[in-house]
Amino acid sequence: MNTFLFISVAALVGAVIGSFLNVCIYRLPIDRSIVFPPSACESCKRELSWYENLPIVSWVVLGARCRTCQTRLSFRHPLIEALTAAMFGAAAWYYGPSVLLASRLVFGCALIVLFAIDLEHHLLPNVITLPGIAVGLAFSFVTEPGWIASLVGAVVGGGSLWLIAEAYYRIRHEDGLGMGDVKMLAMIGAFIGWPLTIVTLMMASFAGACVGLVVIALRKGDLKYALPFGTFLAVGAALAATVGPGLVRWYLGFYRPL
Ligand SMILES: [Zn+2]
């Protein structure tokens, strides 16, 4: 198939999937089914017509308001749809039609949902992370990173964060990291393998430290503000999956054992 056509179709499919991710982001934290009932206004509960459900387009055409109750529609909807469309288009261009593309798209969707839910609710639902570990492992038998790297990634990813969480709890007697973060990094490890999981953890910690410093500076020394680490893990994993391999090669090029 023509490359441009392939990327365009992927982006279009991404926008529609993004619409579904919005449903997951809204309903999973409040324990509601993601398939039933159909989409409705979050305020007046009126069921949406098909033309109110078009990704991005509806939000713009309706002027970001519900037609009945005039409640403002969250900017999150078109943002997630555009992000998912961009992710699908970019991945289609980068990987081409392959099993690895399918694996990375599933992985990307999981990261987007976890990113948004953790940011808003400080929560990483098991219904995403646990099946995510299984799906990542299943993919690894037919594509990158291979099942050994995947299995080691899940164990090292989950295990290292679990140790950090456990040590923090012993020392500070309060929860620093949740078990959600542990399961999320295990999922990341299953999808991209242990070397890139280490890159993920480094990038997430670095991004977390940078944002943390800004927060501390702006709030004049308030360290109690709990930053959702899963949000940083999602960003770190997205970076690791794309620029990570080049980074690892670059580092190994510099590293000469004596
Ligand atoms: Zn309404």
Notes on the structure:
The protein is mostly helical. It contains 9 helices and no strands. Helix 1 runs antiparallel to helix 3 (76-95). It is globular. The site of zinc ion (ZN) has 8 residues, from loops.
List keywords for this structure.
258 residues; binds zinc ion; 9 helices; 69% helix; mainly alpha
Oligomer: single chain
| Percent helix | 55-70%
Largest beta-sheet details: none
Low-confidence stretches: none
What average pLDDT do the residues reach?
A: 91
How is the topology of this model organized?
Elements: H1 3-27, H2 57-61, H3 76-95, H4 99-121, H5 126-140, H6 147-172, H7 179-192, H8 194-218, H9 229-254
Helix pairs in contact: 1-3, 1-4, 3-4, 4-5, 4-9, 5-6, 5-7, 6-7, 6-8, 7-8, 7-9, 8-9
The structure holds zinc ion.
Residues 41, 43-44, 46, 66, 68-69, 71 line the site of zinc ion.
